[in-house]
Amino acid sequence: MVCMKSLVLPLSRTFVTNLVSVRQMSAVASADSVKSLFYKEYGEPVNVLHLTKQPVSQPENNQVSVRWLLAPVNPADINTIQGKYPSKPPLPATPGNEGVGEVVAIGSNVKNLSIGDRVIPNGVNLGTWRTLANYTPEELMKIPKEVGAVEASMLNVNPCTAYRMLKDFVALKPGDTVIQNGGNSSVGQIVIQLCKIWNYKSVSVVRDRPNIQELKDHLKSLGADEILTEEDIRKTQIFKSKKLPSPKLALNCICGQNALEVLRHLGHGGIMVTYGGMSREPLTVPTSALIFKDISLKGFWMTAWTKANMDSSKRQDMFKELGTLFKEKKLRAPPHKLVPFCQYEEAVLNALSSDGKTGVKYILDMTGS
Q: Where does the record place the Enoyl reductase (ER) domain (predicted)?
C-alpha cells in the first residue's frame, strides 16, 4: 500500500476530483438500501401504496444524492395517488411534493451544492416519500439551515399559497380586512400570521366543536382579530357596526353554504379567491353580489403558479422572505405530528379525514425509518 504522503509527483486535477467524489459518496454507500413508497396504479393510498427497498445508487457527475429527512402528507398528495389531481406523474411513481433533505453526496460536475446543504424540491412531483434519491441541482432549492426542519419541510405549499393569495389579488394596505374560511387549516394559520406581520385585520371562520374556545385561543395567539363559527358568521355585526372594515379579500377553501356566508360580508368591489373545495359542494353566488356589489371571483392553484414562475425573481423573493420569517420565529408551523416512515398508513389515512376539525398536519419522518 502506498502512503499518500510518499507521492512526490503532483496529482492531476482529475485524480483529485475523483478522490473527493469517492469520499463524498461514502455517506451514500454506508446506507444499506433505499426505502421508498411507490404506486403502479391510481387508487386509495392504503390499497395502492407499497413500501419497497432498492440498492443505493451513486449520483452521476451532474447529480447530487439527497437523504430526505421529513416529508408532509398533503391532501393534494392523496388526490394525486387517487388519480383525481390535475397534475399527475408518470406511473409507476413515488409520491410526495414536499420535504426537506440533506445533500450527502455530489457528482464531480456539481458546483452550486455541497455536502451537508439543506434542500427542498424546486418543482412538483419530485417524489419525496423515500429515504434517498439522486437529483440534478436544478430540481432542488438550497435553504438556510437556520430554518427548522419541520418548517422547511412544508415551505413549498401552504406558506407559499397563503403568501401569494395575500399578495396577488388585492393591493392590501395596513388596516384592511381579510376574511377566510378554513381558518384552522395549515394555509389558514399561515394567513393569520402573515396578516398580523403585514398589519392586516383577519377574520377566520371555523367549524364549531366541543373545544371551540381552545381553538379560538390558539388562533388568537397567532394574531387573529376575530374567530367566528359557521353559526356566528350568519349573524355577526362586526362589519355593519364598523368594528372592522368590510373585507376587501375573501379566501375560500370550503365552498358550499360556508363560502356563501363569507361572500355576503365582502365589501363593494371585493374579491373572493377559491383555492379548495373541502365541502365538495359548488360555489353559489347571489346575482346581487355581482351586479350591485361588483364582487369578483378568482381561483388559485399553487402548482400552476409555480410552473409559470419557476425562475422568476418573485418566486425567489417569496422564499427568501418566508425563510427569514421562519428563521426569526415570526412564523410558526401549524400543529403537526411526525409519523415514522414505516408507519406511513397512519399519515395517509388521517390526511384523508374530511371532518376538517383535527387541524394537525401529518409529516413522514424518514430519520426513524
A: 44-360
Q: How far apart are CA 27 and CA 25, in angstroms?
A: 5
The span from the CA of 205 to the CA of 144, in Å, is 34
Q: Name the residue with cell 365582502.
A: 266
Distance CA(233)–CA(216), nearest Å, equals 14
For 289-311, the pLDDT digits (tens) are: 999 999 999 999 999 999 999 98
H or E element that contains 214: helix 212-222
pLDDT value at residue 345? 93
How far apart CA 197 and CA 86 sit, in angstroms, is 33
Higher pLDDT, 209 or 7: 209
C-alpha distances out from residue 153 to 57, 158, 229, 298, 324, Å: 24, 11, 30, 28, 15
What is the pairing mode between strands 132-135 and 64-72? Answer: antiparallel
As a whole-number percent, the residues of the chain with pLDDT over 90 amount to 79
Q: Are strands 201-206 and 226-229 parallel, antiparallel or unpaired?
A: parallel
Q: Name residue, grid cell 457527475.
A: 61
DSSP string, 54-97: E------TT-EEEEEEEEE--HHHHHHHHT-SS--PPSSB---S
Please pick, among 39, 42, 85, 362, the residue that the annotation labels catalytic.
Answer: 85
Helix (H, G, I), strand (E, B) or coil at 158: helix
Give the separation between CA 246 and CA 240, rounded to whole angstroms: 8
Mark whether 85 is an active-site residue. yes
DSSP state of 333: P
Three-state SS for 101?
strand
3-state secondary structure of 317: helix
> How many whole angstroms separate alpha carbon 34 and alpha carbon 118?
19
pLDDT, tens only, 270-287? 999 999 988 889 999 999
265 contacts 246 by C-beta, under 8 angstroms: yes
Q: Pairing mode, if any, of strands 34-38 and 100-106?
A: unpaired
Q: How many CB atoms lie within 10 A of CB 143?
A: 21
Q: What is the pTM of this model?
A: 0.87
